[in-house]
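Re-run with default settings, no changes from the original entry. Doing this only to confirm the output is reproducible before filing.
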Amino acid sequence: MSEKEILAALALTRINYFHLAGIRQLYEALGSATAIVENIPNIRDIIPDISSKMMEGLRDVNTVMPRAEAELTYCQQHGIQPLVLNDPLYPHRLRECDDAPLVLFYKGTADLNQQRVINIVGTRHCTVYGQDLVHRFIKDLKSMCPRVLIVSGMAYGVDICAHRNALQQGYETVAVLAHGLDDLYPPRHRETANQMIHQGGLLTEHFTQTNADKINFVRRNRIVAGMSDAAIIVESASKGGSLITARLSREYNRDTFAFPGAVGAPYSEGCNHLIRDNQAGLITSAEDFVKAMGWQDDAQLQEAQQQGIERQLFPQLSETEARIVAALQQQNDQQINMLTVRTNLPIAKLTSTLFELEMKGVVKTLAGGMYHLLT
């Protein structure tokens, strides 16, 4: 991604923060943030019905360019990746959502486009019951699905419990923050966040010097929901942020699940209502979840790996498998987002074929979602 394109995207984000749908329309029509900036004088010829408010904002793009340049400099100095919407590293699931941010800021090592991505969210007032559910769920899931990216929001309660249990089980875990990457809220989670940078990551749509205001916590829920295959609500009161995530998950056509709780328990009311109203599937274990998602193949692979897969010396490769192998022969140890670019294969087809190659002992996965060709 060129520096010019990143700067243009940062500037557009700065002036159109609350007009994501409109800026997305422009982006898709012109193909890049740079093209939008360069065509501002005749933008109405391209999008005749553009709002006057957005047009007024676009005219101010040069006034915010110094702020965009300062932000990019900060990113470069602190190992932060600005991910523009058409960047291969940008979460492709989130890209499908109309209100996806034009730019994300990311610091970490995890592949945001892993084959399996789930979010685990819930109340900030997590009970012992909720803590036990999170611990057992993640531990059992690891034995059945060894490669799942766990996403949450770094908040007190269920969120931090999910992050810490993911780290303990060897999962990568990503926190979506409600502020810039120059700060951390709550500050007492700093040690966990530092560990996640090397075993997952921190992700936000916010510039530095952005306060963790209430509205930002609400907005970040759409990123949590949009970048995931499924949402899992552990505990929730009758009103709460996790219910917003559950609603957004349904709106994005993602799978949504909830753990039931005791009738009358204040932090189980939200989950029980979701289940009662058919807004979330009832699960009581990781096994329930894996079956509902149809992820049993992961468990089969885990079993095969435990037994020891013997690599075939001269395996029979399909045309698609051969294409992937050829790409890895040119450059070994690639993440799936780069492989999809170099093989020109859809993500769904690529992930299923990589699974077959693992079963044949032709490739194996490394830390950080890298695929390694066994020679």
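The chain has a mean pLDDT of 90. The longest helix spans residues 61-77.
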